Amino acid sequence: MEISQSQLLLVTLYALLIGICLGGVYDLFRMARVAREVTASGERRTHGRFEPLLLFFEDLLFWLIASLSVILFLFHANEGKIRWFALVFCALGFALYGLTVGRLVMRISAFLVCQIKRFGLFVKKKWLLPLLRFALRVLTEMLHIVAFFLNIFWRIYDKIKTKRETKRRKARYLAESASLFDRMLE
Questions:
Q1: Model pTM score
Q2: CB 98 within 8 A of CB 23
Q3: Helix segments in 50-128, DSSP class H
Q4: Residues 25, 65 contacting (CB under 8 angstroms)
Q5: For 25-59, how does the pLDDT look when each residue is reduced to its tens digit (9 = 90+)?
Q6: How far apart are CA 25 and CA 100, in angstroms?
Q7: Which residues, including other chains, have CB under 8 Å from residue 27's CB and lie 6 or more apart?
Q8: Cα 6 from chain centroid (whole Å)
Q9: Is the per-residue pLDDT at 1 higher than 70?
């Protein structure tokens, strides 16, 4: 089947757009890496023990997303036919994004990650920790009150229990005494 010039231009532009979008998706993965590496003070940390494994799975996920999006695009735009120029323009869009906007995004992302982590530490120190301390104090006081009332309850219960036991002992003693007295009278 022949493809018209207008369809060819549309496929080319869509391929370029998909490459640019895939560059943005890859930058999201790169920003996640920067977020794991940069501390709140702006210093870079050394890689953790499982960092290479995590990088492998991130890259695998990106390439699954990229290949699936290109395959779906080719299936929809070219009725499933793989055209080399579509793949070339996808790669060109990816490279174009990486060399222009991608560099800018990565320069800004380290700064933004650092600021977000600083804000998170501020919120943690000024809001979250005092709130948790207050909640812990309230919970501790509530437990003290519950323990106080339980102590009173157990004392009352113990007094009632001892009174019943004494009454039972007296009743048993009287019954034994009465039976002994009856035996003596016989």
A1: 0.60
A2: yes
A3: 51-77, 84-99, 101-123
A4: yes
A5: 999 998 888 888 766 565 666 667 788 888 899 99
A6: 15
A7: 97, 102, 105, 106, 109
A8: 47
A9: no
